[in-house]
Records
---
Amino acid sequence: EVQLSESGGGLVQPGGSLRLSCTASGFTVDTYAMIWVRQAPGRGLEWVSALSPTRGTTFYADSVKGRFTISRDDSKNTVYLQMNSLRADDTAIYYCAKDRTRRFLEWYFDSWGQGTQVTVSS
Amino acid sequence: DIQMTQSPASLSASVGDRVTITCRASQGIANYLAWIQHKPGMAPRSLIFAASSLQSGVPSRFSGSGSGTDFTLTITSLQPEDFATYYCQQYSAYPPTFGQGTRLEIK
């Protein structure tokens, strides 16, 4: 059974940093693309970042480009989202998700985690 | 970016009702359309991909249709666990984009 578990969220001041983790079970993160999606208070879902499975190509929404970095540790079967220079509008629940297609970034996400809350406030 | 517009924004219905949610893309996306169910405090749940293909484990009362720019999600015989917010998402072009959501509430 595929499971995704996020951690690392919390309260941080503007300009600060956080590293989110997404630990997977039931599959290996080096064979499927992994994605981060967020939901700000009162808003809908917004794609944030993706990591392709084979070449490890990274993708970022314009709103986070240059501030966020996605990576993975295959030995821990975990994907990370390093968030720097955080702003108030980064406040959201952050979800990790798994792409459906093995070894290919299809951009359809068939499994999701329960999310971790990030609050940026002074 | 491709804009996804859902209607209605909210909908009240009763258990046993049949409901339809629509999603329109700002340009043609063939059938690269997914539907996602989301309840507060829970993991989002993908229901449908390729506009009409049911994700494994999703009840058959959920169905999707459409191609190009206009899509629908239909839920027949609403169950109590179906009251949630529903999002469409296109994955035809980068970046992937979501609709603003349709909140399905109990009447």
Note: Chain A is about 0% helix and 55% strand.
---
Amino acid sequence: DTGVSQDPRHKITKRGQNVTFRCDPISEHNRLYWYRQTLGQGPEFLTYFQNEAQLEKSRLLSDRFSAERPKGSFSTLEIQRTEQGDSAMYLCASTLEGSNQPQHFGDGTRLSIL
Amino acid sequence: EDQVTQSPEALRLQEGESSSLNCSYTVSGLRGLFWYRQDPGKGPEFLFTLYSAGEEKEKERLKATLTKKESFLHITAPKPEDSATYLCAVPIYNQGGKLIFGQGTELSVKP
């Protein structure tokens, strides 16, 4: 299966620590998106890449968050100095650029802040 | 402001009891609407894309329809394995296809 994969699936850390998540998109997809989902809510957009360029960031993405997509392949999302409010499911999705192409999601990384 | 609202928030059905889920949207320049299914602890799984008012798509017991203001996901004779959260989403025009999601409808089908 060559779907979107995310690692790790779960991350438990203490408040104030830094964490990094990885996303491997479907290989031929040039667009990659990060979303955050809290319990009982739909996913909320954080940022997206077209190839290696980060083209948009949500206001939800504070200065503690940074995302990269070197060489336009996998992507990483780093959260520095984690806070309780960062606890959520972080979802990655990818798609092929083009009108109305569906985004395909990975199974996410669940982050719990102690 | 672009917005997507789903109702009801939760729906409990008996096996075989048909029903519908609603997704209302206000976006400028609709360029499609997506339905996803999400199981606990998993990412959203793509179901349908609807492009224009009047369009319908079907998959097994599910049928999605679209009007100018809302979309419906009809579930005919559901089975327990249809239990999941159903999400609808619209892409925002000229913003790289980023999706705005509704809050989802949690469907539970009892045998």
Note: Chain A touches chain B through 30 residues (CB under 8 Å).
